[in-house]
Amino acid sequence: MRDDQYFVSVSKALLSYQMVGEALKLCIGVSYEVIAASNPPEVSFKFSPASINDAPLGNLVKMFAKVSNNQALIKELQAKKLGKWRNFFAHNAFAHEFMSRNSQSSYTPHSVEEVQQVSLYVGELVLKLGEELKALQKVHARLQSDHRQI
Questions:
Q1: Angle at 78 between CA 74 and CA 80, to 5 degrees
Q2: In the structure, what pLDDT confidence band is assigned to residue 5 with cuts at 50, 70 and 90?
């Protein structure tokens, strides 16, 4: 049963990381749209949606840091442990669980409780990014409304 808990917890953590990536893509995309809509006609601001959609998590965090003023959230997203845990879940968790039974694992053992704690933390980041996206959507809607009035 404990093994099942481990895999369920890893799966939930991976889902949370996936949601962080998707939230970052949305925040960056809406930010770029706001910037483009705010530009005077003499200044061009072009961006490629593919450059956002194809970016790995680390690059998304860098892009987000360039368009956001939320320094506390940026700092949380830039934490090295966040990326290390994501890489562990995505690339090593399965092998780690089965190899550790034979004492041949080269990875630090992680308990179900540790995995659950990281999953909760990443889930909190998803909520914070959701709030960030809501604020950006309000700015975007206001700009759209202002342009219609002109």
A1: 160
A2: confident
